[in-house]
Amino acid sequence: MRKAPPPMSRLFLSVIVFSAAANSMAEVFTYEANVFPEQAGWDISQIFCDPGLSLEEDGRFVVDVDLCKGDPPPGGQGATYRRTLDEHIGSEALFFEWRLQTNADRSELPWGGGGAFAVADDFGVRYTFFIARDEAVLNRDNLLPIIHVDIEPEQFHTHRLELYGDELYIWSIDGEVVDSGIPEGFLPVFNPRTSWRTRSVWLPNTTQWDYIRYGTIPAGGSGDFNSDAVLDVDDFYFFQECRTNSGPATDAGPGCRWADMDQDSDVDAHDFALFQLAFTATE
Ligand SMILES: [Ca+2]
Ligand SMILES: [Ca+2]
Ligand SMILES: [Ca+2]
User: Fold this and answer.
1) Which ligand is nearest to the CA of 55?
2) Which is nearest to 131 in space by CA: 162, 161, 169, 159?
3) How far, in Å, is the centroid of ligand 1 from the Cα of 159?
4) pLDDT value, residue 12
5) Is the pLDDT of residue 15 over 70?
6) How far is the CA of 57 from the centre of ligand 1 (A)?
7) Of 21, 37, 207, 257, which sits with the fewest C-beta atoms within 10 Å of its C-beta?
8) In this predicted structure, what is the pLDDT of residue 249?
9) pLDDT tens digit string along 247-275?
C-alpha cells in the first residue's frame, strides 16, 4: 500500500487512469508497511508463541519478540513471512531492498535471532542476512566466508541486494557497497522465494520494518522504477524519495540510479525536470 500521492501528481491524473491497465503486470513488488504483511500479499510462514505485532501510522511494521512464557531458551517468539519469486524465474537483474531498525543484540545472530531477510531457491543458492542493532551478517553458504558488517546502532538502515544472474551479486547498506562477488549459481531458477523474520532466541528485541521492495532492476536514468514502460504516479512516489535522500552533487546510490535522469550520479532539480517531461510525454 502506498501513501496518498503528493498534490503535484494530481496534474497527471488523466495519465494515471490511462496507464492503470498497463500496470497490472508490474515488475516490482513493494510493501511499505502501512498494513500488516498478510494484507499486502505476504504469506505467513510462521507466527510463533504470540509476538507483539503492530503498525505505526507513518508506515512501520513493529515486531516485539521475547522468550516464550514458561519455555526456557534457546528459542522464543518469532514472525516469518514469505513470497514466491516464481514470476521472476530466469530474470537476470533483480534487486531486493529492505529497510529496518532493530535493537536486537548481536549475540542473537548466530542463533538466527534478530531481524533476518533471505532470498533462496531449491538449487541451493541462497542469501541470508541477519541483522542486529549494530551488526549485519550475510551467510550465503556455511562453506563460504560469512560477511560481518558493523552498522550504526539506533538507526534505520537500508539494505540492498542486487543479483545479476550467475555473474555478480552486490550487497549495499545505505548506498555503500559492503560486499560483492560471484554467486554460487543462477537465482531464481527453481522454487525461488524471499522471506523475512523477526525472532528472539535468548533475548527480547523490537524490530521495525519500514519497507520491503524487490523486482526487476530499473534501467539507469529511465525514471521507470517499476519497469512497466510507463512513467506515472507509481514511479513518482519513489522518485521523490530518491530526491529527498540525495540532492545536488550527492551520489544517490545504487537504489536510485533509475531516478538519475541526467546520469551525473545525483537526483536533483535537473533530474526532476527531465522526469516531468517524460511523465507528460506518456500521455
Ligand atoms: Ca514504510
Ligand atoms: Ca513505471
Ligand atoms: Ca542527476
Assistant:
1) 1
2) 159
3) 14
4) 40
5) no
6) 9
7) 21
8) 86
9) 788 899 999 999 999 999 999 999 999 99
Task: Note the ligand closest to the C-alpha atom of 31.
Answer: 1
Using alpha carbons, select from 243, 246, 230 the residue that is nearest to residue 272: 243
**224 alpha carbon – ligand 2 mean position (Å):** 4
d(CA 231, CA 210): 24
Model confidence over 16-45: pLDDT tens digits? Answer: 333 333 333 469 999 999 999 999 999 999
Please tell me the distance from the alpha carbon of residue 256 to that of residue 132, in angstroms, as a whole number.
25
Q: Which of 167, 161, 212 is nearest to 186 (CA)?
A: 167
Cα 277 to averaged position of ligand 3 atoms, centre (Å): 15
Q: What are phi and psi of 167, to 5 degrees?
A: -95, -35
Residue 246: pLDDT band (50, 70, 90) is confident
276 Rama sector, left if φ>0, alpha if ψ -120 to 50, beta otherwise: alpha
Report the topology of domain 28-216.
Jelly Rolls (2.60.120)
Query: Minimum-distance ligand to the CA of 99?
Result: 1
- Break the chain into its structural domains and give their ranges: 7-25+228-281, 28-216
In a 3-state reduction of DSSP, which class is residue 194?
Answer: strand
Query: What radius of gyration, in Å, describes the C-alpha atoms of the chain?
Result: 19
Phi, psi of 104 (to 5 degrees): -60, 140
What is the pTM assigned to this prediction?
0.89
